[in-house]
Structure formats: C-alpha cells, structure tokens
Design brief:
alpha/beta, Methyltransferase, Methionine Synthase (B12-binding Domains), Chain A, domain 1, 2 domains, 9 helices, Rossmann fold, about 220 residues, about 60% helix
Length: about 220
C-alpha cells in the first residue's frame, strides 16, 4: 500500500466510523514513516470536515457524527503525544464544560473531538461544572475560548451566572464565551451576552476560529 492509498483509506474509514481500522491504519502509517501531522491534516481532519458537511446537508445525523468522532478520538489518543513532541502549534485553547445542574455530555464530547481534530487544545472540565470552577480554569489555562454546554432548559440560566462570575473575577474581557446545547438558540446566546453560538459541532469549530481571529486582529490593530 502506498502512502497516498493509506491516507485515502484512513479518510474513508474515519468517515464511516470504523474505529478499530482507523487505529490500525494510524499505527501502520506511523510505522511507515508518515508524520502525525500528515495523518491528521491529510486524512483525519478532512474526514471530520466531510462528516460536518454531510450533517449540514442532512445526509448524516448525530449518530453518524458520534461514530466518526469516536473513531477519530482513538487515533488522536495515539497522535496527541507525538504532535506535542513535534511542537505542532495549536490554533488556540478552549476550556469546555457542561454547566452546573446538567450531566449531559454527548454533545460536549463531540464538540471537543471536533475541536481537537481541528488543532485546538481542549481542557474538558466535565459535567456539573460550577461557575467558580470555570473561573479557576480560565485563570490556570488562559484559554482563548470558554465553552458552556447545556442540554436542559432548566440549566440554561447558568450561562448568565457563569458570565456574571467571569465579570466579577475581572476575566470577561480576556476570553471569548461560546454557548451551545440542544435547547440553545442564537437569540438566547445574545440575551445572556455570549460571544458565540453554534448549532452543531462542525459549526462550533468554524465559529471558534472566527472569534479567535477577530480577537487577535483587535489586539494587533
């Protein structure tokens, strides 16, 4: 198998979410001398981008996205330490968590996988994250973006509570706030004062890149 054939197979198998085969091909590629960045940027990330495009067209649904995301996550477990060794520069850092009172994490986890696959460093705080924990993580990790996830309408008000906590700690201007989750809308994001909202994982990556580019442009202006 040539390197081009291996990358094509890796792309195809990630697209259909064949986790064991994706992991095996990733290992085979590394053994054959392909760099971790080549595997990531020429096969894995394009596959996830295609998954996102198919989701937006209505050809794929959440289960297909999850399966493909999990397949890629297995490959990332192998590639992550190797990418760190090569000094591969991340696009930015994201602190992510499901808000206090909410234990749902499937959507958050999928967004995390998409972020990592796109080149972001992700610090996942898990579920039931209180405002003070988000504050601590922002102080510790100095992220570009903090993401609040909520699946329940009853926990959506925690977005505002978290933003209030950032204001009180003097951190609001230091980080872009993104919100998301099944019941969340752009209108609600605007009401609570978030900087960004996305309806799905692939859109979240696009919006995050836009927010970071805008913030960096403002700093350099």
């Amino acid at each position: 198998m040539t390197n081009d054939e291996l990358l094509r197979q890796l792309y195809d198998l990630t697209l259909v979410g064949n986790g064991p085969a994706v992991l095996e091909l990733t290992t085979t590629g590394l053994t054959a001398g392909l760099g971790p960045e080549t595997l990531l940027y020429e096969a894995l990330i394009p596959a996830l981008e295609e998954v996102g495009a198919r989701f937006e067209r209505g050809d794929f649904f959440v289960p297909e996205m999850l399966i493909a995301g999990k397949a890629m996550a297995g490959a990332l477990d192998v590639l992550r330490p190797l990418l760190a060794e090569t000094g591969a520069e991340s696009i930015g850092t994201v602190v992510m968590g499901t808000v206090k009172g909410d234990v749902h994490d499937i959507g958050k986890n999928l967004v995390n996988i998409m972020f990592e696959g796109a080149g972001f460093k992700v610090i996942d705080l898990g579920v039931q994250v209180p405002p003070e924990r988000f504050v601590e993580a922002i102080v510790e990790h100095r992220p570009d973006i903090v993401g609040f996830s909520a699946f329940l309408t009853t926990t959506m008000p925690m977005f505002k509570a978290n933003i209030n906590a950032l204001n009180k700690a003097g951190l609001r201007d230091q980080v872009a706030v993104m919100v998301g989750g099944a019941p969340v809308t752009q209108e609600y994001a605007d009401v609570v004062g978030a900087d960004g909202y996305a309806s799905d994982a692939s859109a979240a990556v696009v919006r995050a890149k836009e927010l970071i580019a805008a913030r960096r442009a403002a700093v350099s202006a």
